[in-house]
Design a protein that fits this description.
286 residues; mainly alpha; 0% strand; single chain; 74% helix; flat
Amino acid sequence: MSIESERSRLIFQKTERALQKLSSGQEAESVHGFRTASRRLQTLLEQIIPDRNRNQKKLLKMLDRTRKCAGKVRDLDVQLSALRSLKVPQEPRRKTQLTHGLIELRAKHEKKLRKMLTKGMIREIQKRLKRASRELKSGAALDPLSVARTMLAQVVRPAGPVTEDVLHQYRIVVKRARYAAEFASKSTAAAQMIAQLKRLQDALGNWHDWLTLTQTASKRIGDAHQSSLVAALHNVTGSKFRQAVAALSNSPMLQTPSKSVSMVLEQSRKPGTKSPMPVAKTETAA
């Protein structure tokens, strides 16, 4: 299946508009918009277009640096959103303190992002975006759906129960596979794959948002034995973990061993059993 040439060219324009919005203000929507647009462009240039020239490589490097800085702000936005949605009576004062702490930390990272977004840097990125768009050779592109399937197949599947490390791998790959599939020409197969990947991405992303918040709360407040609020967050994260594992098991695109999935679900339902915290380095939300 061929690449959708119009969509591939539009992503350059969308990334430029997202960059302009980000430079005008670092609200949650503008930060998220820039990260998703630049991620899609990265997928196009790194996964679907086999050969990159010097300008495209430099562009990706500049976008990556900006996206990482924006990612720290985005992480705090999703944590604040999750915390505000948590309706529990436990330790309201600690919840308020945690909220204020996250807001202060966001302001700190927002200041760094704003300082990075100089007029000179923005002009250079815009110039490189326009040049890269003109240089794009859609005819040499790989099949987006094949690229997406290959990405999914490269995830190492566990012989035993599904772990947080495995969920983390799938979270990253599913997101990028969806971005790759979105560059395919319109078809029933493409629409089905994108819809399935989006459902997976939502489940895995939701788990990761709560996991990140729980980790932050544990560092600032203490573990579940020291705080009923942290204990409540652990319970929510455990529930989101089970939902993410179930989403993997129900996906026709993934070959996660059903026995492993059922073992995780059965084990996580046992009284007093907590979902273990991950040891893998987490990636910021997209």
